[in-house]
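Minutes, project check-in
Item: structure for the 70-residue chain
Input as provided by the requester:
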Amino acid sequence: MIEYDLGLFYIKIENEKNWSSFLKGYNKEFNEKKFNLYVTAFGIWMIQDEIISENDFHFQKFINCVNKFN
């Protein structure tokens, strides 16, 4: 599942330049709703395991994906 891979990588990267390069490497279209779902799931997992916190850059990416469901 491409969305799974992209979601996991997106929530973990710190440099948006890496994200652009990663997408070019995949060179495939993906389902944005599934992608947001995986980013949200990985974000919940990372928060629960205290890998990220509210002051973390990754937390904001998580919140942005969650807000897309509204």
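Outcome recorded: The chain has a mean pLDDT of 81.
No further action items on this chain.
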